Amino acid sequence: MRSSATRLLILITTILIAVIIGLQMHWLSKTFAFEKNEFNTAVLKSIRGLYEDLNLSDETGFQFNNLIEHPADNIFVFKVDDAPLKDSLMKALISEFDDFKVYTGCKVAVYDDSTKKYLYEEYIANAASFHSDSVAIDAPALKTNYAYVYLNFPNRNQYIISNMSSWIFTSVLLLALLIGLGASIYYLYRQKFLNDIQKDFINNVTHEFSTPLTVIDLSTDALQKPGIAGNPDKYNKYVASIKYQNEYLKKHIQTLVKTVVTESYHLTLDKTKLYPNELIKRAIVQLEPIVSQKEGKIIFEPDQANEPIMADSDNLYLVIFNVINNAVKYSEAPKIIISTGVQQLKYYISVKDNGIGIAPGEIQKIFKKFYRAQNGNIHNTKGLGLGLYFVKKIIELHHGQVEVNSVESIGTEFKIILPIN
Q1: Where do the H-state alpha helices sit in 294-375?
Q2: Helices 313-329 and 232-264 meet at what angle, rounded to 10?
Q3: Distance separating the N- and C-terminal Cα atoms of the chain
Q4: What's the rounded Cα separation, in Å, for the pair 290 and 332?
Q5: What CA–CA distance (Å, rounded) separates 14 from 12?
Q6: What is the pLDDT of residue 91?
């Protein structure tokens, strides 16, 4: 819940940025369509001016639209009674284009219906022309029974886009600002997330290490009291307490160091032939004091064949210890069932508990570094948020996998699957 408001802000900001970008693209599209229409209108006005200047047809007034065809976006064809002279047409056309601000190159060709071929072709260059070889554009002969003038604007789209340069620049600038804003918000969120993780880690480490150290300190003071040596039961109790807390601290330090090593360096496994059942028995003995304190029990159902596997003994032991320790920690009166065996040529270690369970949305997150499930993220449940992260890393290095099945308020099963060889 600590970052839900931040996530909501990022979501809203992302939606707003997407909407603004969508509107911007729609606006640019509408502007492009408007500029295209303006260009077409300017060309049509220029053609109308040609009819008036050169008296190209006797059909005028409302019949003007019937004289012009627009077969493609960049092509205009208009009917003439007689083919105009080249010099007269070029001069008039340049003048009309200048009057109506048609500042892009145009390929001009005049078709004669009697000879069924073009009488001449010419290219009107302009500063806005983008291709010097546009004069080489072929003018296709249209199947008509009348003379016509063919106009082709090969750089029409580039010309229209150049006219929109200021609008495009402001749109790109706005887009860059929006992306920068989104990136800044994400960066701030990430920094907040990392700060929260660091804060939780420090709190967890402080709590996790201070409690055992306090117990060791109190037990040491008790051992120094006069007469304690004459009371073997109390003496052994304090010594056992110190030993347990010492082993508990060593386990966490080992996990922390191993995690740093696997994260910063390529951890090399020292694989040997071993029997997982023996590692499990050792972990059960190690955890017996805390299980007894919680009035729980661990039931071990080992594979009767006691199959050996090739694995790193020290690291696999820490994996097993972490998984069983989690089962104990998150159960009020733990009843842990551990079983081993071989299925489909894979060795498995199953650890079932009757604990608080894990919410479906949390299962994929529990293997992240420093992450602790929300229903388990309480200080009376010890942990650094590194155990399961370390478990997954080590099992993956063994080319195995960890499966998790859990039902809230019922319990959880962790199943470690390893190759036999």
Answers
A1: 313-329
A2: 120
A3: 44
A4: 11
A5: 5
A6: 93
What's the alpha-carbon Rg for the chain, to the nearest Å? Answer: 41
Provide the residue count of the chain: 421
pLDDT at 369 over 50: yes
**Up-side HSE of residue 391: CA atoms within 13 Å toward CB?**
25
Question: In the structure encoding, which two tokens stand for residue 198, read together?
Answer: 């660091």
Phi then psi for residue 271, to 5 deg, are -80, 135
**Beta-ladder partners of 297:** 335
Confidence (pLDDT) at 378: 42
- Structure tokens given for 314: 């020290």
Q: What count of other Cβ atoms lies within 10 Å of the Cβ of residue 317? A: 21
For the chain, which domains are there? 4-163 (no CATH), 233-419 (3.30.565.10)
Coil, helix or strand for 306?
Answer: coil
Question: How many Å apart are CA 25 and CA 210, to the nearest integer?
Answer: 59
Comparison of pLDDT for 152 and 187, the residue scoring more: 152
Provide DSSP, 177-242. Answer: HHHHHHHHHHHHHHHHHHHHHHHHHHHHHHHHHHHHHHHHHHHHHHHTSTTGGG-HHHHHHHHHHH
